[in-house]
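Dissemination and training. As part of the outreach component of the grant, students in the summer workshop were shown how a complex can be specified as a set of sequence lines and then modelled as a single object. The example used during the hands-on session is reproduced here so that future cohorts can follow it. Participants entered these lines:
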Amino acid sequence: MTTDLDTTHDPDSTVGKSADLPEDADQWTAKVRHAAVDALPPGRLLPDRQPAYVASWIYVFGVITLCALAVVILTGVVLAIFGPTWWHVSTVGLFFNSLHMWSVEVFFFAMVIHLWGKFFMAAWRGRRRATWVTGVVSFVVSVGAAFTGYLSQQNFDSQWISTQAKDGINSTGAGAIFNVTNFGQMIMWHIVLLPLVVVALVGLHVLMVRLRGVVTPFAAKNETPGGEPADATGAEVQA
Amino acid sequence: MQMLPAVTSWILASLVDLNGPGRYVHWGFIQISVSNLILIGLMVVVFVAAILIPFRRHQGGDR
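and obtained this result:
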């Protein structure tokens, strides 16, 4: 019996291909697919070329931030697999612990320079408000992720930070639901909740960059008054 | 095996002494650790360098 999923012996099967049968046009899958491809066609999602004005070191720091985030997550996964005794005692564990901490340093270092660069470019121009806002919120949530990470070190440093921070948190009234001296709660926030939020926000931020294009410099010749290139892919604004 | 000669280790340790209480700069109501101040200074330097240093262009001048 040949089913819809059995494509082995059916060269005309459309399963797995972008079949647009008229009777399927009303299905939500087809609608979502069309909306996604219309908003972000593959050429815009992963372009081969960038606008000429991107040829500056100041545009590199967003990618450095993304690379550092990847290292943060990968080393965090390794730390989660082996646990606190391993990262405190073994040589390899200490190495991964250090990699995790220093990649966070690089992450914030690059992200702050990225933020300064985009602030002075007024990167919210040209319908890029959502790009700017997702970036700012990512930054704020990342601070929380780093903070709960420092609380999860299980050393004197984390004890000091938590006992100092509890007064500040309690003064806001949030201490009732967010107890910085509760190690179990802090590590769950650090390795589950906040990474999910950060990755989702950063993913959304990158999608917005692809959707709206990289912001043009103020002095670009073919910049429209709204700060938007004629095509967000930037293909036609190359020098 | 000793990775660094004793003199080199001593110089590095004297430059970045992490074995003790942190040093702080006080300026009015502003109080900041020297390490954080150095880090912020480095970020400013890298930011200015990223704007001023030319980016290598590919042939044809595009990208």
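Residues 55 and 61 of chain B are 11 Å apart (CA to CA). Students were then asked to discuss how this feature might be tested experimentally.
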